[in-house]
Amino acid sequence: MRGYGQYCGLARSLEVVGDRWNLLIVRQLLITPARYRDLLDGLPGIATNLLADRLRDLESAGVLERRLAGAGSVVEYALTPWGAELRGPIESLIRWSTPLMVRGPEGDAFRPEWLALAVPALLDTRVEPRPSATIGLEIGGPLLQLRAAPTGFEVGPHDGGDLDATVRTDPAYVLALSAGALTLGDALAFGLVEVDGDESIVRTVFAA
Amino acid sequence: MRGYGQYCGLARSLEVVGDRWNLLIVRQLLITPARYRDLLDGLPGIATNLLADRLRDLESAGVLERRLAGAGSVVEYALTPWGAELRGPIESLIRWSTPLMVRGPEGDAFRPEWLALAVPALLDTRVEPRPSATIGLEIGGPLLQLRAAPTGFEVGPHDGGDLDATVRTDPAYVLALSAGALTLGDALAFGLVEVDGDESIVRTVFAA
DNA sequence: CCGCATCCTCATGGATACTG
DNA sequence: CAGTATCCATGAGGATGCGG
After folding, report:
1. In Å, how far is A73's CA from the nearest CA of chain B?
2. From B29's CA, which of A2, A132, A197, B67 has a CA 20 to 30 Å away?
3. Which of B52, B19, B173 lies closest to B101, judged by CA?
4. How far is CA B165 from CA A173, B161, B189, in A?
5. A14:B100 CB<8 A
6. Who contacts B109 (Cβ-Cβ below 8 Å, separation ≥6)?
């Protein structure tokens, strides 16, 4: 990216991550370290030359690093500690996007793994005390699990363990949760929603 | 901007504010509503056609609005409520930029008004209780004032009222405050720094 | 002057083919 | 699989014009 030449934190940040695709690459690596092919799959629409360019840029800026993983010493990309701190700005933008997300997918590509970032970003973490529960999320891909504990939330692939409940819903509603005064965190904490049902859980939260 | 076609909050946010200059325009309007000429001045390096384009884009996206202000019914640009909520993502990026800012200006343009966003973003608001004080900041432009109160911080132009102290320093150090474990908020709260002195206050904070 | 619109040039992005 | 190379389309930046 052409620089801005401004001594301003925002401008300097954007000189590093403001280029097209850059923050989306960071998004993928926040979900999990990945190989080149994984990134191509997780970033539908990116051109191969652009991905290669951006990986070089972000590596030399100190946001991510190439490393050798596995047996065959395959190249893998992972965020540096500083790069991982982009979780804050990214979660903040995800919260800001709620009015754009309630419109629904409208034909856009969707990957369940993206919820691993969005759900924690949208859940209200201020509610205390919070009950401990593990909820399965069926949203059209592999089963995800949401672990809610007094100390926070954690979302990832289902580890095969016991689930307190399973929710099947549309990603549009999961992602739109923070639009209202009530969040899924609230709803779980106050027992306002019934799990183990069908998609009605999220619609119920919305109606309240 | 060309869209991403991804049903992801981050991607949809970037389709609105990810274009070059867009977030910097929002930065200027977070400081204060402004006219076209003010924006040109506050965004050194932007081309006039780009500013006009981006203002149109951001208006139709619902981030800002044109309005008639003053007597001569001059056009003025101001953020919508939704646009103003970009303060969160922007402050988050400003905090992330600290390693980039500690290098100093290096010839980049600097406008004191930018501190009105950066200082509150970098001050640690978790420290409680916080003393009430009004500090003047001399950083090379018009005198700014920082009002610290138990409920939060507020930075703006000096309103002519009494100041508890005045600090003269370099913007590089003000902006780099959050790099260490100690923040200006901490330093004020714990009485670790002496104000009314010269730039040594900030260097002292840094050394601690 | 202020608030843009036009024109032109060059850098960047995107799609696809290709290679070690 | 992990990228390069190539070619074309788009967008940025700078200069200038122009009506109010």
Report:
1. 32
2. A2
3. B173
4. 51, 12, 15
5. no
6. A5, A6, A7, B44, B45
Q: Which pLDDT belongs to residue A126?
A: 42
Each residue of A56-96: pLDDT tens digit? 999 999 999 999 877 667 899 999 999 999 999 999 999 88
Hey, is the C-beta of B82 within 8 angstroms of any chain A C-beta?
Answer: yes
Q: Which of B146, B157, B158, B150 is nearest to B122 (CA)?
A: B146
Nearest by Cα to B66 from B39, B101, B31, B90? B39
Sign of the CA dihedral with A68 first, then A69, A72, and A74 last: negative
Q: How high is the pLDDT of residue A10? A: 95
Over chain B, what is the mean pLDDT? 74
Confidence at residue B152, expressed as pLDDT on a 0 to 100 scale: 56
Unique residue bearing structure tokens 């370290």: A33
> Which nucleotides of strand D are protein-proximal, with an atom < 7 A from a CB?
1-6, 10-17
Give the nucleotide at minimum CA-to-C1' distance from B46. D13
Residues of chain A contacting residue B97, judged by C-beta atoms under 8 Å apart: 9-10, 12-13
Q: Is A62 left (phi over 0), alpha (psi -120 to 50) or beta?
A: left
C-beta atoms of A23 and B18 within 8 A? yes
In this structure, how many other beta carbons lie within 10 angstroms of the beta carbon of residue B159? 9
Nearest CA in chain A to B175: A9
Looking at beta carbons, which residues of chain A come within 8 Å of B107? 5
B94 contacts chain A (CB < 8 A)? yes
Report the sign of the C-alpha dihedral through residues A49, A51, A54, A60, in that order.
Answer: negative
Structure confidence by residue, pLDDT tens digits, B60-89: 999 999 998 766 678 899 999 999 999 999
Put simply, the answer to whether A9 touches B99 (Cβ < 8 Å) is no
Judged by average pLDDT, the poorest of A62-66, A183-187, B180-184, B204-208 is B204-208
Q: Is B7 on the interface with A (CB under 8 A)?
A: yes
Residue A146 near residue A201 (C-beta atoms within 8 A): no
Contact B97 A13 (CB under 8 A): yes
Interatomic CA distance for residues B49 and A23, integer angstroms: 26
Give the global pTM. 0.76
